[in-house]
């Protein structure tokens, strides 16, 4: 459904990433992890088609729903209008959204459990609620692939829980193939079927999230040791960085 094969991207004389390959089955969720500047956003941009690969190949459907880290602007618009903007790619050059588009936007809000936001102003929502509206906008495109760039980056714990819960419902429905970047390993363990760990520009590990996100690999990725706790039957382990105990 979505794949990269021996993909590389060079800027000037520097490879941002190289030899990246994965093949994400339809309906699965992929978490991309790596330190600051490791190339996560650049990799997402190649998936979105806004940056060409220097080498290798990508296989991504033509329409992808994108959720940015946050959005500046639109604060004075109703959430329904923000979500209806997701229909723009389906309208003709000078086309205006019609009733069917508004109905699709309402359906997208309902999918994320946020139909009650429809008439509220986007600027009056909390950060987490805004992310959910932006997710609804991506769903309104009717894309089967969703790409999210650090969707929980600026959210407090309650809002992280809110957003992760909505994404988990999409995962359980297996209605979309989802790729997201994160600095929270726990989000990967909670939500993702697979993980792509960007250790270095030419070293990327890909596999089942529970198998590749071991304590040792997380410690190697971030340079910080991790502790692990079991969270009860049917729940993924909980990992926490042990600050102040950096690996020599
Ligand atoms: N337009 C550009 N020209 C040259 N280098 C760039 C450009 N944009 C980004 N880079 C470099 O590419 C590298 C990867 O950047 P990218 O934003 O993809 O990292 P990231 O893993 O998403 O980082 P973060 O976790 O901080 O968001 C960085 O070293 C960055 O400086």
Automatic annotation (TrEMBL):
<keyword id="KW-0864">Zinc transport</keyword>
<feature type="domain" description="ABC transporter">
    <location>
        <begin position="2"/>
        <end position="225"/>
    </location>
</feature>
<dbReference type="GO" id="GO:0006829">
    <property type="term" value="P:zinc ion transport"/>
</dbReference>
<dbReference type="InterPro" id="IPR050153">
    <property type="entry name" value="Metal_Ion_Import_ABC"/>
</dbReference>
<keyword id="KW-0406">Ion transport</keyword>
<dbReference type="GO" id="GO:0005524">
    <property type="term" value="F:ATP binding"/>
</dbReference>
<comment type="similarity">
    <text>Belongs to the ABC transporter superfamily.</text>
</comment>
<dbReference type="InterPro" id="IPR003439">
    <property type="entry name" value="ABC_transporter-like_ATP-bd"/>
</dbReference>
<dbReference type="Pfam" id="PF00005">
    <property type="entry name" value="ABC_tran"/>
</dbReference>
<protein>
    <submittedName>
        <fullName>ABC transporter ATP-binding protein</fullName>
    </submittedName>
</protein>
<keyword id="KW-0067">ATP-binding</keyword>
<keyword id="KW-0813">Transport</keyword>
<keyword id="KW-0547">Nucleotide-binding</keyword>
<dbReference type="InterPro" id="IPR003593">
    <property type="entry name" value="AAA+_ATPase"/>
</dbReference>
<dbReference type="InterPro" id="IPR027417">
    <property type="entry name" value="P-loop_NTPase"/>
</dbReference>
<keyword id="KW-0862">Zinc</keyword>
<dbReference type="GO" id="GO:0016887">
    <property type="term" value="F:ATP hydrolysis activity"/>
</dbReference>
